[in-house]
Amino acid sequence: MIITKSAREIELMKEAGRVVGLVFKTLEEKIHAGMTTLEIDEIVEKTMLENGCKPEEKGYYGYPASACVSVNDTLIHGIPSSKIILREGDIVSVDIVANYKGYNADACRTFKVGTITERADRLMRVTKEAFFEALKYVKVGNHIGDISHAVQEYVEKHGYNVTREFTGHGIGKSMHEDPSIPNYGKAGTGPEIKPYTALCIEPMVLEGRKDTRILGDGWTVKAKDGKLTCHYENTVIVYEDHYEIITMYEGEK
Ligand code: MF3
Ligand code: CO
After folding, report:
1. Which of 17, 78, 186, 198 could form a disulfide with 246 if both were Cys (CB 3.0 to 4.6 A apart)?
2. Ligand 1 within 6 A of 73 CB?
3. What residues contact residue 147 under an 8 Å CB cut-off, 6+ apart?
């Protein structure tokens, strides 16, 4: 069931989204070679708590940290660790969910560690562009499949692959609500997009083959072929005749 949101609920989600943006702004300045992924987690947790939000991922189905921090061939759900040290040229995605007074906002950014290769840079560009391509179809009366199809087509056109196992989703009081928003699919299929709903659109892109494996920790999802991966996500509110991205900070590109 897709849950529509009241004006008050949207305001609370927007405050959660503002804090998510603030976390990314902070990380943009702080991520550097030599730092550990656990240090990133600490910044995420501290920034959220100082701004009246709870890191919703912590304890979610037993997840042990406040952020998912995934380096290079780790697609998603990387568990922050003092043993994972960022190196010049890495790309690191940070996927976070802030809860403000019971309402959530969810987003992910992939950051560069120092100077990266053109190969990694292109993957980052295409992943982000796939999100904005999909956004063109966020319109009342369109279907979720229009979003899915747009992501898949854009990504594959550039020679990359989308994951089949993990999807975007609705969001609200819960981090994951209906509808499920796959990164692949057929235009015109799936639920209709309704006003006053909140959607997390999140291209998860693999440079190589689409296949992934989960590590023994039960969370970390890696590209089976060990090639690079990238993830970009925002929470988007749908209104009658427009949409609003609530998880970008002012001036963010
Ligand atoms: N934030 C992720 C998403 O985009 C989910 C994180 S799973 C958790 O849907 F266990 F870390 F919370
Ligand atoms: Co999400």
Report:
1. 17
2. no
3. 134, 137, 138, 168, 181, 199, 201
Residue 100's pLDDT band (cuts 50, 70, 90): very high
Q: What's the CATH code, domain 7-245?
A: 3.90.230.10
Task: Tell me, using a 6 A CB cutoff, whether residue 233 lines ligand 1.
Answer: yes
State pLDDT tens for residues 129-138. Answer: 999 999 999 9
Residues paired with residue 97 on neighbouring β-strands, in sequence order: 106
Q: Whose Cα sits closest to atom 11 in ligand 1?
A: 57
Nearest residue CA, atom 2 of ligand 1?
Answer: 95
The count of other CB atoms within 10 Å of the CB of residue 227 is 17
* DSSP annotation of 137: T
Q: How many CB atoms lie within 10 A of CB 50?
A: 10
The residues that bridge with 180 in the sheet, in sequence order, are: 169
Domain residue ranges of the chain, discontinuous segments joined by +: 7-245
- Tell me the residue type at 23: V
Q: What does the pLDDT read at residue 161?
A: 99
pLDDT tier, 32 (very low <50, low <70, confident <90, very high otherwise) = very high
* pLDDT one-digit tens code per residue, 37-84: 999 999 999 999 999 999 999 999 999 999 999 999 999 999 999 999
* Atom of ligand 1 minimally distant from the CA of 65: 11
What does DSSP assign to residue 225? T
Indicate which atom in ligand 1 lies nearest the CA of residue 175.
9
